[in-house]
Design brief:
Length: 336
């Protein structure tokens, strides 16, 4: 396993082989777009190479993890999205637009100059895009049924059978005070015919517990935590929809740095304190810095030593966790 809270220098594909399966909670990558913005942004067989990267990320990401990927080239994005759907286990969650030209931005006047050029023969692109994927569907249930919801259902069923001899769903609904026709709550939560049984509520669980004379010994909070911990994390901040307004980051020795506040927003929404965030294109260290500020741990990978030195300096200036260190070896590049 690669060491935590360090930036490792080298080939991201080779170094990721040292990361354990299903050990990372959140992945945020800003890879090369292959548009020749810098020497590292010109890669032969680009899409083939990126797919190898993504398959390694799929391997190391937990079943309840989330994956964010920046890009700017729409045709490339379209190809990737088709490939994601057909060749990976990732499930599409959202297409986020990072809007750089918006009212209130101190840089809007500067960017306005690019829009009004007479010779312009297309709409000026003032945005980049972020793909968001998990391994789970909207409810977060697709990867956790066998691990959690089915055992919870089976546990409740077994205790009812022990106490009452058998399960009569209509009788359970009567006890719960819910509708006794059309299946009701009992069918939704306890029927063996349900491919996606519902998680029982605390209210209904406590009613059943009393009905069974406390034979349901497990505390509901224990069951709920087990259930929630297996779902992908989304801490709704009540602040963002699918278009995000963030100013362009000042150049800090890197061609294409991403705004620190934007990265913080991703981390706040899609991880918990103490969890591990992987960025295999670490660049000038924005993801690592955001993790330090928000009490997350990180694994960083970066090709260029000059960018690692920039990241080290940034981390040492705002150090909440140990200073990142350089680990040499390999090749490959960054876009941040």
């Amino acid at each position: 396993m690669l060491e935590i809270n360090k930036i490792h220098q080298g080939d991201c594909i080779e170094l990721m082989k040292q990361i354990d399966d299903k050990s990372v909670d959140l992945v945020i990558i800003d890879p090369p777009y292959n548009i020749k913005k810098d020497s590292w942004d010109d890669i032969e067989e680009y899409e083939k190479w990126m797919k190898k990267v993504i398959l390694e990320l799929q391997r190391v990401l937990k079943d309840n993890g989330t994956f964010y990927m920046f890009h700017s080239e729409m045709e490339v994005i379209a190809d990737f999205m088709q490939w994601f759907r057909k060749e990976t286990d990732f499930i599409f969650r959202q297409f986020i637009v990072w809007n750089k030209r918006f009212d209130g931005s101190p840089r809007k006047g500067f960017l306005d100059g690019y829009v009004v050029v007479d010779a312009l023969r297309n709409y000026q692109q003032m945005a980049e895009y972020i793909l968001c994927y998990t391994f789970q569907d909207e409810t977060g249930l697709s990867k956790i049924m066998g691990n959690c919801v089915y055992p919870i259902r089976d546990y409740i069923r077994s205790e009812i059978i022990k106490a009452k001899g058998k399960i009569v769903l209509k009788e359970v609904n009567t006890v719960l005070g819910t509708a006794t026709n059309g299946g009701g709550v009992a069918s939704a939560c306890l029927s063996l015919d349900k491919t996606c049984p519902a998680m029982i509520t605390e209210e209904h669980y406590l009613i059943l517990r009393k009905w069974l004379n406390e034979d349901l010994r497990r505390e509901y909070e224990y069951l709920r935590r087990e259930y929630e911990d297996l779902r992908y994390t989304f801490n709704n901040q009540g602040t963002h929809h699918s278009v995000w307004n963030y100013d362009i980051e000042k150049k800090i020795g890197h061609t294409t740095p991403k705004p620190l506040d934007l990265i913080k927003n991703i981390i706040l929404h899609s991880s918990k304190e103490g969890q591990i965030v992987l960025d295999c294109f670490m660049g000038s260290g924005t993801v690592a810095l955001a993790c330090q500020n928000l009490s997350r741990r990180f694994i960083g990978i970066e090709k260029e030593e000059k960018y690692i030195k920039i990241a080290q300096k940034r981390l040492s200036q705002k150090s909440l966790l140990p200073l990142a260190e350089i680990h040499k070896g390999g090749t490959l590049s960054s876009h941040k």
